[in-house]
């Protein structure tokens, strides 16, 4: 097989043509580093290797880009990378980020748990569920949440104060109860706080 053309594409990609036919878009830097030039003869093994290297580079760049915006759990980062790269490349990128100290599930869990409890005002039960969705195991999630002291009734009061100025009509009260239940609060705590609003 003969490389007949390499054409630049957007986002640091290059179109690879073999024997006059378009094959795929690959990372341009990977092609340069591995001396994939027009006129070079390659075999299937060479092609598979350059595809693997291109995918790995793209996955690492995507991982760095995602991490630069905010913390991620390993599971979450891998899932996002897999939208544009294969599973092996995504796994390799996640492992590399972990080796570099840029990815740590325990640190992520601590920061995200604080956000869930103190900013979003979720209950601890709902926060455990949310952390598990991000790939944090239940034991770690519960341990991290136990370090944060919050009173569920104070949390409920804060949600009501922020979102519901008045709980006088039944419709608003039902809406408030539904919202609090979605945040994971139990009926006993909700009922106790709502009774404070009754005149």
SSE topology sketch:
Elements: E1 3-8, E2 13-18, E3 21-27, H1 28-33, H2 44-69, H3 74-81, H4 87-99, H5 105-119, H6 124-133, H7 138-146, H8 152-163, H9 170-182, H10 187-197
Antiparallel strand pairs: 1-2, 2-3
Helix pairs in contact: 2-4, 3-4, 5-6, 5-7, 6-7, 8-10
Note the main attributes of this structure.
199 residues, mainly alpha, Arc Repressor Mutant, subunit A, 3 domains, 3-stranded antiparallel sheet, 10 helices, 3 strands, 62% helix
Brief account:
With 199 residues, this protein is mainly alpha-helical.
Largest sheet: 3 strands, antiparallel
Number of helices: 10
Order of helices and strands: EEEHHHHHHHHHH
- Terminal CA distance reads 84 Å
Q: How many separate domains make up the residues?
A: 3
- Give me the secondary-structure category: mainly alpha
Poorly predicted tracts of residues: none
**If you compute it from the alpha carbons, what radius of gyration comes out, rounded to the nearest whole angstrom?**
26 Å
What sort of overall outline do the alpha carbons produce when their principal axes are compared?
A: elongated
| CATH fold assignment of the largest domain | Arc Repressor Mutant, subunit A
């Amino acid at each position: 097989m003969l490389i007949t053309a390499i054409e630049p594409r957007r986002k640091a990609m290059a179109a690879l043509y073999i024997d006059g036919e378009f094959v795929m878009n690959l990372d341009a830097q990977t092609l340069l580093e591995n001396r994939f030039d027009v006129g070079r003869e390659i075999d299937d093994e060479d092609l598979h290797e350059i595809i693997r290297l291109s995918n790995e580079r793209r996955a690492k760049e995507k991982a760095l880009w995602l991490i630069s915006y905010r913390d991620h759990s390993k599971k979450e980062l891998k899932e996002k990378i897999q939208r544009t790269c294969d599973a092996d490349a995504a796994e390799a990128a996640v492992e590399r980020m972990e080796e570099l100290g840029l990815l740590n599930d325990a640190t992520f869990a601590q920061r995200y748990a604080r956000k869930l409890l103190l900013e979003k005002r979720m209950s601890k039960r709902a926060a455990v569920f949310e952390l598990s969705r991000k790939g944090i195991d239940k034991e770690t999630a519960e341990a991290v949440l136990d370090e944060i002291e919050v009173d569920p009734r104070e949390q409920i009061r804060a949600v009501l104060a922020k979102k519901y100025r008045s709980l006088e009509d039944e419709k608003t009260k039902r809406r408030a109860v539904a919202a609090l239940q979605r945040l994971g609060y139990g009926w006993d705590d909700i009922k106790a706080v709502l009774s404070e609003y009754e005149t």
